Amino acid sequence: MHWRETMDKELEAFETNHTWDLIVLLEGKRAIGSRWVFKVKLKQNGSIDRYKMYLVTKGYTQIEGVDYYDSFSLVAKTVTVRFFYCNSYCLWMTLLQMDANNAFLHGHLDEEVYMLPLEGYDKAAEGLVCRLKKSLYGLKQASRQWNIELTSKLEAYGFKQSPHNHCLFTLCSDSIFFFLALIVYVDDVLLTGNSVDDLDKVKRYLDDLFTIKDLGHAKYFLGLELSRSSHGTYIPSEFDISMSSPIPFHCDKVVIHITENPVFHERTKHLDIDSHLVHDHFKCGFILPRHIPSAQQVADLFTKVLPAAMFSHLLAKLGMLCHAPT
After folding, report:
1. Where on the phi/psi map is residue 207: left (φ > 0), alpha (ψ -120 to 50), or beta?
2. Strands, sheet with 212-217, edge to edge from the N-terminal-most edge strand
3. How far apart are CA 136 and CA 156, in angstroms?
4. Residues forming a β-bridge with 181
5. Which of 81, 140, 284, 313 reaches 20 to 30 Å from 177, CA-CA?
Protein backbone atom coordinates (compact mmCIF):
# COMPACT_ATOMS: atom_id res chain seq x y z
CA MET A 1 0.00 0.00 0.00
CA HIS A 2 2.82 2.40 0.88
CA TRP A 3 4.60 1.79 -2.40
CA ARG A 4 1.46 2.26 -4.52
CA GLU A 5 0.75 5.63 -2.94
CA THR A 6 4.37 6.65 -3.40
CA MET A 7 4.28 5.65 -7.07
CA ASP A 8 1.12 7.68 -7.66
CA LYS A 9 2.78 10.74 -6.10
CA GLU A 10 5.83 10.32 -8.32
CA LEU A 11 3.73 10.04 -11.48
CA GLU A 12 1.74 13.09 -10.40
CA ALA A 13 5.00 15.01 -9.94
CA PHE A 14 6.09 14.05 -13.46
CA GLU A 15 2.87 15.42 -14.94
CA THR A 16 2.93 18.58 -12.81
CA ASN A 17 6.49 19.35 -13.90
CA HIS A 18 5.75 18.49 -17.56
CA THR A 19 8.65 16.06 -17.48
CA TRP A 20 7.92 14.50 -20.89
CA ASP A 21 5.76 14.57 -23.99
CA LEU A 22 4.38 11.41 -25.56
CA ILE A 23 5.35 11.30 -29.24
CA VAL A 24 6.05 8.82 -32.02
CA LEU A 25 9.73 7.88 -32.08
CA LEU A 26 11.35 9.51 -35.09
CA GLU A 27 13.26 7.39 -37.56
CA GLY A 28 16.92 7.09 -36.66
CA LYS A 29 16.33 7.90 -33.00
CA ARG A 30 16.69 5.51 -30.07
CA ALA A 31 14.91 5.33 -26.72
CA ILE A 32 16.45 4.28 -23.42
CA GLY A 33 14.75 2.14 -20.80
CA SER A 34 13.86 2.84 -17.17
CA ARG A 35 12.91 1.12 -13.94
CA TRP A 36 11.60 1.89 -10.45
CA VAL A 37 14.00 1.93 -7.50
CA PHE A 38 12.57 1.52 -4.00
CA LYS A 39 14.14 3.04 -0.91
CA VAL A 40 13.12 3.37 2.73
CA LYS A 41 14.26 6.70 4.22
CA LEU A 42 15.23 6.52 7.90
CA LYS A 43 15.16 9.13 10.62
CA GLN A 44 18.14 10.03 12.78
CA ASN A 45 17.10 7.46 15.40
CA GLY A 46 16.81 4.67 12.81
CA SER A 47 13.01 4.58 12.57
CA ILE A 48 11.20 4.79 9.21
CA ASP A 49 10.75 8.34 7.96
CA ARG A 50 9.06 7.73 4.60
CA TYR A 51 8.92 5.42 1.63
CA LYS A 52 10.58 6.76 -1.49
CA MET A 53 10.51 5.61 -5.10
CA TYR A 54 12.70 6.85 -7.91
CA LEU A 55 12.08 6.46 -11.60
CA VAL A 56 15.61 5.77 -12.80
CA THR A 57 16.53 5.77 -16.46
CA LYS A 58 19.09 3.35 -17.82
CA GLY A 59 21.64 6.07 -18.35
CA TYR A 60 24.40 3.55 -18.90
CA THR A 61 22.94 3.03 -22.39
CA GLN A 62 23.30 6.72 -23.29
CA ILE A 63 25.83 7.60 -25.98
CA GLU A 64 28.14 10.55 -25.41
CA GLY A 65 27.72 13.19 -28.10
CA VAL A 66 24.22 11.93 -28.93
CA ASP A 67 22.22 11.68 -25.70
CA TYR A 68 24.48 13.92 -23.61
CA TYR A 69 27.56 16.11 -23.88
CA ASP A 70 28.61 17.15 -20.37
CA SER A 71 27.99 15.16 -17.20
CA PHE A 72 30.29 16.84 -14.65
CA SER A 73 28.41 18.23 -11.66
CA LEU A 74 29.69 20.20 -8.69
CA VAL A 75 29.34 19.08 -5.07
CA ALA A 76 30.37 20.90 -1.92
CA LYS A 77 33.77 20.03 -0.50
CA THR A 78 33.77 18.41 2.92
CA VAL A 79 36.10 21.08 4.29
CA THR A 80 33.67 23.77 3.09
CA VAL A 81 30.76 22.02 4.80
CA ARG A 82 32.68 21.83 8.07
CA PHE A 83 33.66 25.49 7.83
CA PHE A 84 30.01 26.29 7.14
CA TYR A 85 29.04 24.55 10.39
CA CYS A 86 31.72 26.31 12.42
CA ASN A 87 30.99 29.75 11.01
CA SER A 88 27.27 29.41 11.68
CA TYR A 89 27.64 28.14 15.22
CA CYS A 90 30.47 30.44 16.27
CA LEU A 91 28.35 33.44 15.28
CA TRP A 92 25.24 31.81 16.80
CA MET A 93 23.30 32.06 13.57
CA THR A 94 20.31 29.89 12.77
CA LEU A 95 21.26 26.81 10.74
CA LEU A 96 18.44 25.22 8.74
CA GLN A 97 18.33 22.13 6.56
CA MET A 98 16.16 21.56 3.50
CA ASP A 99 15.65 18.87 0.93
CA ALA A 100 14.49 19.46 -2.64
CA ASN A 101 11.69 17.07 -3.59
CA ASN A 102 12.25 15.43 -7.00
CA ALA A 103 15.25 17.69 -7.47
CA PHE A 104 16.43 16.25 -10.78
CA LEU A 105 13.01 16.76 -12.36
CA HIS A 106 13.60 20.52 -12.38
CA GLY A 107 16.65 20.44 -14.64
CA HIS A 108 15.93 21.30 -18.27
CA LEU A 109 17.43 19.08 -20.95
CA ASP A 110 19.26 20.61 -23.90
CA GLU A 111 19.62 17.30 -25.75
CA GLU A 112 16.99 15.13 -27.40
CA VAL A 113 16.49 12.18 -25.07
CA TYR A 114 13.76 9.58 -25.59
CA MET A 115 12.60 7.05 -23.01
CA LEU A 116 10.48 3.94 -23.38
CA PRO A 117 7.16 4.36 -21.51
CA LEU A 118 6.72 2.77 -18.11
CA GLU A 119 4.97 -0.56 -17.88
CA GLY A 120 1.42 0.07 -16.75
CA TYR A 121 1.55 3.81 -17.51
CA ASP A 122 -2.07 4.41 -18.49
CA LYS A 123 -1.49 7.46 -20.67
CA ALA A 124 1.07 5.82 -22.93
CA ALA A 125 -0.55 4.59 -26.15
CA GLU A 126 1.06 1.81 -28.15
CA GLY A 127 3.92 2.98 -30.35
CA LEU A 128 4.58 6.17 -28.36
CA VAL A 129 7.70 7.08 -26.40
CA CYS A 130 8.47 9.78 -23.85
CA ARG A 131 10.42 12.76 -25.21
CA LEU A 132 12.10 14.01 -22.03
CA LYS A 133 11.90 17.75 -21.37
CA LYS A 134 13.24 17.57 -17.81
CA SER A 135 15.96 15.46 -16.23
CA LEU A 136 15.33 12.12 -14.57
CA TYR A 137 17.42 10.11 -12.15
CA GLY A 138 19.94 7.96 -13.96
CA LEU A 139 20.59 10.34 -16.84
CA LYS A 140 24.24 11.21 -17.25
CA GLN A 141 23.50 14.93 -17.23
CA ALA A 142 20.76 14.92 -14.56
CA SER A 143 22.80 16.20 -11.61
CA ARG A 144 24.52 18.81 -13.77
CA GLN A 145 21.24 20.21 -15.12
CA TRP A 146 19.71 20.42 -11.63
CA ASN A 147 22.76 22.29 -10.34
CA ILE A 148 22.58 24.75 -13.25
CA GLU A 149 18.87 25.37 -12.64
CA LEU A 150 19.28 25.91 -8.88
CA THR A 151 22.28 28.20 -9.38
CA SER A 152 20.39 30.41 -11.83
CA LYS A 153 17.45 30.78 -9.41
CA LEU A 154 19.69 31.60 -6.45
CA GLU A 155 21.55 34.23 -8.46
CA ALA A 156 18.23 35.69 -9.58
CA TYR A 157 17.31 36.12 -5.91
CA GLY A 158 20.57 37.98 -5.25
CA PHE A 159 22.93 35.29 -3.98
CA LYS A 160 26.54 35.38 -5.15
CA GLN A 161 28.35 32.17 -6.02
CA SER A 162 31.70 31.69 -4.29
CA PRO A 163 34.64 31.61 -6.73
CA HIS A 164 36.41 29.12 -4.46
CA ASN A 165 33.57 26.62 -4.09
CA HIS A 166 30.71 26.95 -6.55
CA CYS A 167 28.29 25.14 -4.23
CA LEU A 168 28.55 27.95 -1.65
CA PHE A 169 26.33 31.04 -2.04
CA THR A 170 26.23 34.21 0.06
CA LEU A 171 23.90 37.20 0.29
CA CYS A 172 24.66 40.29 2.36
CA SER A 173 23.76 43.96 2.57
CA ASP A 174 25.86 46.96 3.61
CA SER A 175 23.00 49.36 4.34
CA ILE A 176 20.95 46.95 6.47
CA PHE A 177 23.27 44.53 8.20
CA PHE A 178 22.25 40.99 7.43
CA PHE A 179 24.07 37.95 6.13
CA LEU A 180 22.80 34.76 4.55
CA ALA A 181 24.78 31.77 3.34
CA LEU A 182 23.64 28.64 1.56
CA ILE A 183 25.47 25.46 0.65
CA VAL A 184 24.26 22.75 -1.73
CA TYR A 185 25.15 19.07 -1.88
CA VAL A 186 23.12 17.60 -4.77
CA ASP A 187 19.54 18.00 -3.45
CA ASP A 188 20.44 18.69 0.20
CA VAL A 189 20.58 22.35 1.22
CA LEU A 190 21.94 24.07 4.32
CA LEU A 191 20.88 27.66 4.97
CA THR A 192 22.19 29.97 7.67
CA GLY A 193 21.93 33.65 8.50
CA ASN A 194 21.44 36.27 11.19
CA SER A 195 17.94 37.31 10.09
CA VAL A 196 15.07 34.89 10.71
CA ASP A 197 12.74 36.90 8.47
CA ASP A 198 15.14 36.74 5.53
CA LEU A 199 15.67 33.02 6.08
CA ASP A 200 11.91 32.50 5.86
CA LYS A 201 11.77 34.54 2.63
CA VAL A 202 14.45 32.38 1.03
CA LYS A 203 12.66 29.20 2.11
CA ARG A 204 9.37 30.41 0.62
CA TYR A 205 11.14 31.43 -2.59
CA LEU A 206 12.75 28.02 -3.02
CA ASP A 207 9.57 26.20 -2.02
CA ASP A 208 7.57 28.04 -4.70
CA LEU A 209 10.12 26.97 -7.31
CA PHE A 210 11.11 23.46 -6.27
CA THR A 211 8.72 22.29 -3.51
CA ILE A 212 11.32 22.24 -0.76
CA LYS A 213 10.91 20.02 2.29
CA ASP A 214 11.80 22.00 5.42
CA LEU A 215 13.73 19.75 7.82
CA GLY A 216 14.06 22.42 10.51
CA HIS A 217 17.29 22.98 12.41
CA ALA A 218 20.16 20.96 11.01
CA LYS A 219 20.79 17.80 13.03
CA TYR A 220 22.17 15.30 10.52
CA PHE A 221 23.93 16.17 7.27
CA LEU A 222 26.22 14.10 5.02
CA GLY A 223 26.68 11.48 7.72
CA LEU A 224 27.57 14.04 10.39
CA GLU A 225 25.38 14.31 13.46
CA LEU A 226 25.17 17.84 14.86
CA SER A 227 24.15 18.99 18.31
CA ARG A 228 24.24 22.40 19.96
CA SER A 229 24.33 23.33 23.64
CA SER A 230 25.22 26.35 25.75
CA HIS A 231 28.75 24.92 26.01
CA GLY A 232 29.32 24.64 22.28
CA THR A 233 28.57 22.60 19.20
CA TYR A 234 29.49 18.98 18.79
CA ILE A 235 30.04 16.75 15.79
CA PRO A 236 30.01 13.29 17.44
CA SER A 237 32.29 10.58 16.11
CA GLU A 238 30.65 7.92 13.99
CA PHE A 239 31.15 5.07 16.46
CA ASP A 240 31.62 7.07 19.70
CA ILE A 241 34.87 5.26 20.50
CA SER A 242 36.96 6.62 23.35
CA MET A 243 40.70 5.95 23.57
CA SER A 244 42.19 4.85 26.89
CA SER A 245 45.75 5.63 25.74
CA PRO A 246 47.49 7.37 22.83
CA ILE A 247 48.11 5.42 19.63
CA PRO A 248 51.87 4.78 19.24
CA PHE A 249 53.55 5.34 15.89
CA HIS A 250 57.19 4.62 15.13
CA CYS A 251 59.42 7.24 13.52
CA ASP A 252 62.92 8.70 13.62
CA LYS A 253 64.26 11.35 15.99
CA VAL A 254 63.68 14.24 13.58
CA VAL A 255 59.99 13.43 13.19
CA ILE A 256 59.62 13.08 16.97
CA HIS A 257 61.21 16.51 17.43
CA ILE A 258 58.89 18.12 14.87
CA THR A 259 55.86 16.37 16.35
CA GLU A 260 56.55 17.37 19.94
CA ASN A 261 57.67 20.93 19.13
CA PRO A 262 56.04 23.44 16.76
CA VAL A 263 59.37 24.08 15.05
CA PHE A 264 59.71 25.97 11.80
CA HIS A 265 62.84 25.77 9.71
CA GLU A 266 63.95 25.36 6.12
CA ARG A 267 63.09 21.65 6.02
CA THR A 268 59.48 22.13 7.14
CA LYS A 269 58.49 25.48 5.66
CA HIS A 270 57.03 23.78 2.58
CA LEU A 271 54.43 21.90 4.64
CA ASP A 272 50.81 22.97 4.28
CA ILE A 273 48.87 24.07 7.33
CA ASP A 274 46.83 20.87 7.38
CA SER A 275 50.06 18.84 7.51
CA HIS A 276 50.45 19.93 11.15
CA LEU A 277 47.56 17.65 12.04
CA VAL A 278 50.09 15.24 13.56
CA HIS A 279 51.33 17.94 15.94
CA ASP A 280 47.77 18.83 16.96
CA HIS A 281 46.92 15.17 17.63
CA PHE A 282 50.03 14.83 19.78
CA LYS A 283 49.00 17.84 21.88
CA CYS A 284 45.54 16.34 22.36
CA GLY A 285 47.01 13.02 23.46
CA PHE A 286 45.69 11.01 20.52
CA ILE A 287 49.09 9.75 19.34
CA LEU A 288 52.47 9.01 20.90
CA PRO A 289 55.63 9.03 18.73
CA ARG A 290 58.22 6.35 19.51
CA HIS A 291 61.75 6.17 18.15
CA ILE A 292 62.73 3.30 15.89
CA PRO A 293 66.29 2.72 14.57
CA SER A 294 66.87 3.23 10.86
CA ALA A 295 67.77 -0.44 10.50
CA GLN A 296 64.21 -1.34 11.51
CA GLN A 297 62.32 1.45 9.68
CA VAL A 298 60.38 -0.33 6.93
CA ALA A 299 59.18 3.02 5.55
CA ASP A 300 62.70 3.51 4.16
CA LEU A 301 61.81 0.96 1.49
CA PHE A 302 59.59 3.57 -0.14
CA THR A 303 61.72 6.67 0.41
CA LYS A 304 65.39 5.69 0.16
CA VAL A 305 67.82 3.83 -2.09
CA LEU A 306 69.04 0.99 0.15
CA PRO A 307 71.84 -1.59 -0.10
CA ALA A 308 70.68 -5.01 -1.26
CA ALA A 309 71.10 -6.61 2.17
CA MET A 310 69.14 -3.86 3.95
CA PHE A 311 66.45 -3.94 1.28
CA SER A 312 65.97 -7.71 1.66
CA HIS A 313 65.92 -7.40 5.46
CA LEU A 314 63.19 -4.74 5.49
CA LEU A 315 61.26 -6.55 2.78
CA ALA A 316 61.16 -9.64 4.99
CA LYS A 317 59.79 -7.53 7.88
CA LEU A 318 56.83 -6.71 5.64
CA GLY A 319 56.26 -10.42 5.09
CA MET A 320 57.26 -10.20 1.43
CA LEU A 321 59.73 -12.22 -0.63
CA CYS A 322 61.86 -11.09 -3.56
CA HIS A 323 61.30 -13.19 -6.69
CA ALA A 324 63.64 -11.27 -9.00
CA PRO A 325 65.12 -13.41 -11.84
CA THR A 326 68.63 -12.85 -10.45
Report:
1. alpha
2. 160-161, 168-173, 178-185, 188-193, 94-100, 212-217
3. 24
4. 170, 192
5. 81
Which ranges in the chain belong to alpha helices (H)?
2-16, 78-90, 142-157, 196-210, 253-260, 277-284, 300-303, 308-317
0.90 surpassed by pTM: no
Q: What is the pLDDT of residues 38-68, one digit of tens each?
A: 888 887 677 888 888 888 899 999 988 888 8
Domains in the chain: boundaries: 2-228, 247-317
CA distance 66 to 61: 11
Instruction: Give the list of residues 6+ apart from residue 102 with CB closer than 8 angstroms, or none.
Output: 10, 13, 17, 211
DSSP alpha helix (H) spans, 122-175: 142-157
Angle at 279 between CA 276 and CA 280, to 5 degrees: 90
Question: What is the DSSP track for 244-277?
Answer: SSPEEEEE-HHHHHHHHS----TTTTTS-GGGGH
Q: From its phi and psi, is residue 18 left (phi > 0), alpha (psi between -120 and 50) or beta?
A: left
* Length, in residues, of the chain: 326
Give, to the nearest 10 degrees, the angle between helix 196-210 and helix 142-157: 140
What's the rounded mean pLDDT across residues 221-230? 68
Q: Do residues 112 and 139 touch, judged by C-beta distance below 8 A? A: no
What is the end-to-end Cα distance of the chain in Å, rounded? 71
Query: What count of other Cβ atoms lies within 10 Å of the Cβ of residue 63?
Result: 10
